[in-house]
Amino acid sequence: GLFMLIGSLIDLYCYYTKASFKGTGIRILLCFSFMSNFKKFANTKTSSDTLSCLNGIRFLCMSWVILGHTYLVLNFQIFLGLEKVRDYAKDFGFQAVINASVAVDTFFCIAGMLVCYVTIKLVKIQGRPFNITVYILHRLWRILPVYFFVILFMPMSGLVGSGPIWYDTTHKYLKACEDNWWTNLLFINNFYHATDMCIPQSWYIACDFQLYVAALLILIPLLRWPKVGLSMCGAGILASILYS
């Protein structure tokens, strides 16, 4: 909050006085400016090579995920007519809730497509060299700082609330973070001690990173031997359809 206030005041000063600062410290503080960040957030302009259709897919799938999670965390025991809960599963309209988990697969599909799209554009069109180390480190740099901060905050999260069922609700997650926090940082928490996962929602981050690394098996052939890469893509799609 303090950084945002200072950054916003500096941003206002620069706006009205037309001044500019080149110091690293000032530029870092400006990153927290509410004005600059809100302008970027509210900006709807896109470049010509942006796949705008993906924004609509993201919105629909995110709404679907929110719908599913709303019912997932709902305590049906507080409602009258508990015996009717089983009947909901037979309702056609309720199938969107029961099968909401598959909406997450769409985000994996979008992520994989964007990885290939952006990487091929950088290498083939802009002529940049492809470096596997940079490819992986770039992903880690985007995820780990904030991810580490959230994990670090978890032991203190038990102090931010209270209530009759607060301890029973939060204790198992706090204990899991005390014992298995390191599995999150190694991105193996979705299959190693998965039943005692620190931050249960973080399974998606682990899967996303694992698939990001696995994408090299498709990405490298696409860059070096396009026909082989396309054949592997087709075989992978066919195999996933047959398996599911």
TrEMBL record:
Positions of transmembrane segments: 20-38, 59-80, 92-120, 140-160, 203-223
Protein's UniProt keywords contain Transmembrane helix: yes
Domain named Acyltransferase: residues: 53-243
Protein biosynthesis listed as a keyword: no
Gene Ontology MF annotations: acyltransferase activity, transferring groups other than amino-acyl groups
One Pfam family matching this protein: Acyl_transf_3
Protein name (Swiss-Prot/TrEMBL): Nose resistant to fluoxetine protein 6
Species of the source: Parasteatoda tepidariorum
Organism phylogeny: Eukaryota, Metazoa, Ecdysozoa, Arthropoda, Chelicerata
